[in-house]
Each structure stands twice: as C-alpha cells, then as structure tokens.
Amino acid sequence: MNQKNANVFAIGHSIFPAVLLLLFVSHKQFIFLALAALSLSYTAFLVHRAYSVGDLSQLLRMPGLAAIVFFDMAIVTMVYILPKWPPDANPTWLLLFLLPLYASELGKRTAVVICALGIGEIVLFTAVQGRSFFALDTVMGLMGMVVLIWLVGRTSDNLVRMAYYDSLTELPNREMFKERLTAYLNKKSLRQRGLAVIFLDLDGFKHVNDTMGHETGDSLLQTVAQRIRTAISKDVTLARMGGDEFALLVPNISKSDESTQVCNLIFQCLQEAIFLGPHEIYATTSIGVALYPNHGSTSENLMKNAEVAMYRAKQQGRNNFQYYMAPEKTEAQLERFAMEAMLRKALEKDELLVYYQPRIHTKSERVVCVEALVRWKHPSLGIVPPAEFIPLAEETGLIVQLGEQVLRKACNQIKKWQNEGLPELSVSVNLSPHQFRQQNLPAVIARILRQAGLRPQYLELEITESVAMQNVNRNILMMRELKEMGVKISIDDFGTGYSSLSYLKKFPIDVLKVDRSFISGIHEDPDHAAIVNAIIVLAKTLKLKVTAEGVETEEQYIFLRQHHCDEAQGYLFGKPMPPDTFEEWVRLNTTDKDLMLSHET
Q1: How many CB atoms lie within 10 A of CB 580?
Q2: Which pTM does this prediction carry?
C-alpha cells in the first residue's frame, strides 16, 4: 500500500460528522447528534495524526489500517441500526462518502475490501430496518460504489504506479524506497534488529548503451533486476534508483555477515552470461553497504553513505563491495579534499600540460619516440609534482578523464609536428590501471586517433608489468584488440613485477622498458648489470625491442649500446619538456652530425 496524501484522507472524514448533523436537523433524533460527536472526535484524531504527529501514512499500513477500517465500519453500523429511519429513507448512500477516501488513498484493492464490508453493512441495515435489499435506491447505491472503485481506485493505482514505481523494471523507485526506509526506521523494534541499505551500480553500463544501443541497455537492466529479485528473499526491498543504479533495503540485520551474504548472492546471480539477441554480456557490479545505526540513523544519511561506499568500491577496482567508512576530518584529509576539488577544476578547464621526453635509438643516435608526461601548473601553487596528484587521481577515479586528456593532447601534438616537417616521431602514453580496465578503451583510443588524424602505428601504449599480470586472460584479449588497431604496446617498469615467462610469451607486445632502478646501478652492482643484460637477451629471443629508462650517465649509455639495447631514455638526453622547448631540442640535435648529449635543456 502506498499513501499519496494522508492529510486528504483525514480531512475527508469531516464529511461524516457534517452529514450526521444535517440528519439530526432533519430527523430530530439525538442519536444523530451523539454519532456526529463521535465521528467528529474520530476525525479530529485522524487530523491530529496527519498534521501534528505526521504519522498517519504509517498508521494506514497493517495493522493500523485494520483498526481504522474497523472504526469507520463501526460508525456506519451504528448509523444504520441505531436511529429509527422512516420508510422512505434509505441511508445506504452514506458509504459513497467513505469509499472514495480509501480508493483515492489506498487504491483499488483496498476499495474492493471496503466495498465488500459495505455490502455487509447494507445487508445488516435491510435486515434490522425490514427493507428489501433489491430496492432501486439500494441497487443504485451499489452501482455507484462499483463505479467509484473502477474510476477512483484505478486512477489512484495508476498515479501510485507512476509516482512510486519504475516504468522499465516495475521495481519501486527512489521515492518509494525512501518511504519504506523511513517507515522501517520509525519502528521501535528496529533498535534490536537493525537493517542494511545496499547500493549497487552496474560496471561499464555506459559502454553497453554506446556500443549496443539503448534497447539492449534497457533489456540488460530488466534482466539484472529480475535476477536479483529472484536471488534475494521476499522481505528485501529492491528498487531502481535511476540509470543503472539499484538499491536494496534489507531488514532484520543483526550483524554485518548477513549483509555480506546478500552481496555475495548478488555477485552469484550475475556470474552467468546474459544473452540479449546476438549479444553475450557479462555484468559486474560495484556495491556499497551502510548499516543502521552504525552508519546513520536517518534515511538520508543511510542512502548517502551507502552511495559513498559504492563509489569507493568502484575506486577499488569495481566488481566488489565495500562498507561505509566515515572519513577522518584531519587536516591532511581536508587538504586532500581541497586538492581533489582543484584537480577536478583543472580537468574541467583542460588546464593540465603535457611534457615530452625523448627516446633515443642507440644505433642511429636519433630521437625516434617521445614519452608524454602530464604536468600540473597551478595558478597559485605553481608546479604540482606528479607524485602528489597522480595517486589522488587514481584514488578518486579522475585518472580516466586525465588519461584521455593526455592521450588526446599527445596525439594532436605528434600530428602537428608531423605536419610541420619534424621527423616522424612516435609517442608513448602511460595507461593507468583504471584506464586499462575500461571495456570501451579500444573505442576511446580509436576515436582520439581519428579526431587527431594520426595513424595508429605512431602511438605506443605503456602498461606496467603489475597491471598486465592482473586478470591475465582478459588483458591478453584487450591487448590483442589494441594490436589489431595498429597501435604498439610496451610493458613499463619491467623487472619490478612478477610476470611469468609463459604469460609474457602470450602477451601481444612490442617493447620491454627496463625499470630505472636497474639502470642506475649497472656500474656499481654486478647483479643489476646481469639483470639488464638478461632482460635484453630475453627480449631479443621474443623478438621484442628494449628501452632503458633513467639513463643519466654516458657510462650507462655505453653499456646499453654494447649490450644491444635498442633505445634509451633519460636526463642524459633531455628532461621532459614542453612542446616549444622540445621543438628547439629536436632542431638542434638534427642539425649536427652526432647526437648532442645534454644534461640540462
């Protein structure tokens, strides 16, 4: 049952005492005056609960509804049997004042119950007063009741459905969910049993809509809703909050283990593939949980904190659940919030800069590639080191937007240099773990290349070794799709992770980048020198190129050349530079016969 306006229900009852007063005036029987006083007192009670206490909506649910119906029917019964009605009087029409109140407030089903009770009242009246049940005015009254049920009740149900239910999934919507949550919180027994509010969001749903169409997306939402509804118990409320976001209200939760079981049920019901026409979709979800009273005592707080926990689950890599954790209002935390706000603003205004560091081919000693590195020049803070804002971007999920901006600027810049007659350079761009986990990554890269007018072979994507070894089978498929586009793939920071040689052989990659920690010690630590040499030999065996990072001395560079390392990158050749400075660096180094090694640029 769903209440739209309990205040109208209360005020509507004032018709009864008014009618009874008119009957007292016309029939001169004091019983009508007594019944009018009783009905007026009852109406005053309803108005008080509706306006002063504000809980009439809750009373209109079982078992409170049964008591209200009983009292209404009791007054009608007394009106029918206590007064001495004249032969020409037939007060069965009194029910026509009561029925619309229930039909409009509680819908057609409740109105049918009231109608059935009303028919019983009419039978009682005809028996006590010695009337015929099939009298014309009685039959007309019954027909009026049926019409009211059909018109008012049906209209009321349609309005309730529109106001409280989602038209696509036929689940309760946000408004209904909040009302039910508030009703549970008002129960005194909740203090002993507790409840959980669970928010969940489908991972990668936008990609489904963008690539397969909105009809497929709608079918996916309907299927997910049906699977979850089937998996959970009947006393759990499942609602669609909007878009691809759902919520569950789980009553009678005494400990967190019980809400954990509900989360696991959701994961289990989504494990199997969803077949929608020609499409096979595997749906995953990020879930946030807030428990009463630990994580909030009001419906607003519980819903907000469950949503916060859900977004934290997304930041933790998606396809997991997280409980709400109250943030610590320390000075460092407040500073972090301020930094996050500034970073969001910088991304919105496209204020981040991209610097370029050259990669040198060790045989020709010419620049063949540049690595795109993001820099943040804040108007008041100055240059913000990447070590300060990149982890923040990763934690908040802003790294995806940041990465796309860097990729777009780098591709546009390389195409601009090519058009201006500079050597045909390639550009390497780092992919964050969040970016690489995106299902629509190939589509994003293809769109950026198309908009820049850059051929795919001039783009190299760098993935760290640790990221490549997470969910290996999925990553191999992603790399193959990128390779089919024509872009190059390199494994960054190689040697610092735990990659298996069997998997490394399966990766469709082009370049291994030796981590700078090994390069810095090749003249001081024989182990480092042996590791670098082993990586070079391994790469040659797998027909891969090798790039050494962090080359800072000529001795390191000579060692790498002697051991047939293909490319080198580091401060020995040039620091990361803004585009204008890099153009000057390229022109300077292409005018001389030999590469000019520079410690400062």
Answers
A1: 8
A2: 0.48
For residue 197, give the DSSP letter: E
| CA proximity to 452, closest of 413, 424, 412 | 412
Give me the residues paired with residue 120 across strands.
none
Distance CA 464, CA 492 (A): 4
Say whether 281 sits in a helix, a strand or coil.
Answer: strand
pLDDT in tens, 393-447: 888 888 999 999 999 999 999 999 988 887 678 999 999 888 888 888 999 999 9
Q: Residue 585 corresponds to which tokens in the numbers above?
A: 């660096």
Give CA–CA dist 165/229, Å, rounded.
15
Nearest C-alpha neighbor of 236 from the set 225, 220, 252, 221? 252
CA distances for 554 relative to 133, 190, 371, 559, 597, angstroms: 112, 73, 21, 9, 9
Tell me whether strands 279-281 and 195-202 are parallel, antiparallel or unpaired.
unpaired
595: which residues sit within 8 A by CB, 6+ positions away? 360, 365, 366, 573, 589
Residue 49 burial (CB count, 10 A) = 20
- Residues for the chain: how many in total? 601
Q: Phi and psi of 482, rounded to 5°?
A: -70, -40
Spatial separation of the C-alpha atoms in residues 203 and 286, rounded to whole Å: 7
The CA distance from 117 to 396, in Å, is: 60
pLDDT in tens, 181-239: 887 887 755 555 788 999 998 888 888 877 788 888 888 999 999 999 998 888 889 99
Q: How far apart are CA 415 and CA 455, in angstroms?
A: 9
